[in-house]
Amino acid sequence: MEFPMEPDVKLDATSYESNCIAESSAVNGLDDVPINQWQCEVGKMLRNHFALRLNGTCPLVGDDGSVFDSAVVTALNNKPDKPKISYMQLCKDRLMSKTIGPTKLAQLKCTISEKLKKLSHNTSAASNTATGWRKVTIHNAAEHEPASVMEEVKSLVGAKLIYHKLATEANHVTFHLEDDESVCKSLRDLSKRFSMPGSNTRHTITVDTTTSPGSALPPEDVDEIVKRVLASRYNPDLKKLDLSKFHSDQGFRSYNVVFVLCHASNLDTVANMIVKNIPEVEEIDLSNNKIMKLDTTARILRGCRNLHKLNLNNNRFYSLSDLRALRRHPYTDLYLENNKFSRRYKNADVYISEVRTYFPKLLVLDGKELPKPIGFEVDENDDVVPPFRPSFFCNDQAKQIVVMFLKQYYEVFDSKDRSPLAAAYCEDAIFSMTTLLPDSGPRAVPIDSKNIPNRNLRIRTRPDEQLELLLIGRSAVMKQINNLPPCTHDLHNFVVDVSIATARLIKVVLHGVYCRHNIRSKWANIRSFQRTLIIVPVGGGYCIANEQIYLCLPTYNQLQKSFKFESQLTAAAVPSSGPSTAEPIPQPSQLLMIEGFAEQSHMKPEYAKLCLEQNEWDFAKSAALFMKLKEEGKIPDNYYNH
């Protein structure tokens, strides 16, 4: 079996071992040598000369020189028409028992040699540029002025040499530069050939991989320099901030400072300065800064409400998920070219679709206007929640009937005697109740679980239970109405919806809250409810033919708004001066305050009420007065609960 390979075919994982083996034998002149001998030669070559990584995998070289690649096994096992194989089978079948003839070797020799050299060079270059910075040392050149040395070097290398942080170390001149392979090669070529004018000394030049250089200045001074550079790069007319190649700005180089935005702390510092000084910015260019993450920076930039255009070209974002933190800001214009993830998308439609999952309001991507997304034709503002409307009535006549009916109904329901409500129900009325209330905890009322027949179909799954809890007939309905705990409804916060009103029936859906009587807990005495009524004309009035009640805990907004109207009326009814002839009955919200104040102060409820009344029901003011009097010892002992 031979290993076919055309000269222009890309070297992939499957052909990797055969190419290395063929190259080894060709170099050593082994034309018809068995594979196991080539295997040893390849093993020596890889151990001594190469550290190759191909498609994310590394060739494995055994002590005996055996070579096999995990990528080959993975690739073959992923093909449905191939049987599952093991590493040992691969070595045996592909490497141990086959030979390649001299004719094929002659054809492969040139192509494989070039590909291996290129692969070796790319691997070496990739490892050297991992950090993106090089430190260049001109040995034994400190006797000359560093600036003069750099002028001479620049005249030989060319204008493309942009250096940072020029300094002297021991007897050497050092500087930093970014990863530009052509510039590095030119500097290496000058080694042992470079000399200063008027000097016979030839200097060695070394180029080493390093991390991004820092700054010797105090952080406060660096911040001032950053502010000046930001000011020089901001265009107030266009409201645009250009931060491209930020570290290369002459404002930094003149102070011998390297301020790289690929460091998260530096990027966050700049973002905070932007939000503080130019929050009106609409466009920011962050291209060519080797940025990999924007998590904290994205949160800071939300303070720029008008920011809609962001340029992130030529950075180091590995995947679109690295931009997840940006999606909460409504960017409409985005540039993402020449990042690692953008090179992986071969299909433009897939690329646009993926980006739009993070930025649904995007209009322009990489300078190109995006086509309108395929979907339903909806208005741009359709996702806006419609304004709250207190009540809805399909016609004015129905409104008059329903309002009068509910007013009369709840006047009786909230009284001590509910028996007159029998006239409000038909003889064959149907009634049911559903609750979603806690059985335990501070907001639970155990007696409610006993007295309320909960026909929640998620709980009552048996048909006989469901039928039993469906009350039919006026007497059964009134029995349950009378068993409901005494309460007061907040009539002024009712929300009534009447969607159907005909001559034969009216459908009413009523939302509201009520206050349970005789419940001390401020968390448990307010309940929310929804009642659905079908009322029909009977004689000269209307009766309830069908009713369903749903009870649950109130929302925070309902608690805040409940029973405020009555409190305002009570306060307005109290004269500004002169004694009151009758003590007003506290409203439910005031009862809550009395209970809370008595609990925190350990005073009896009647004295807690007195304190609140004297301070116009201001809880904070009452508490401050209580603490003052308590410290002065002016509160009698009989005011407290013992």
TrEMBL record:
GO cellular component, one term: nucleus
Domain NTF2: 401-551
Signal sequence region: none
Alphabetized PROSITE patterns for the sequence: LRR, NTF2_DOMAIN, TAP_C
GO biological process terms held by the UniProt record: poly(A)+ mRNA export from nucleus
Localisation per UniProt entry: Nucleus
Keyword Repeat included in the entry's annotation: yes
Domain TAP-C, first and last residues per copy: 588-642
Keywords (A to Z) from UniProt: Leucine-rich repeat, mRNA transport, Nucleus, Repeat, Transport
Primary residence: nucleus
Family affiliation: Belongs to the NXF family.
Pfam families per record: LRR_NXF1-5, NXF_NTF2, TAP_C
Source domain of life: Eukaryota
Protein name, UniProt field: Nuclear RNA export factor 1-like
Any GO MF annotation of the entry: RNA binding
The species this protein was found in: Hirondellea gigas
SUPFAM superfamilies tied to this protein: L domain-like, NTF2-like, UBA-like
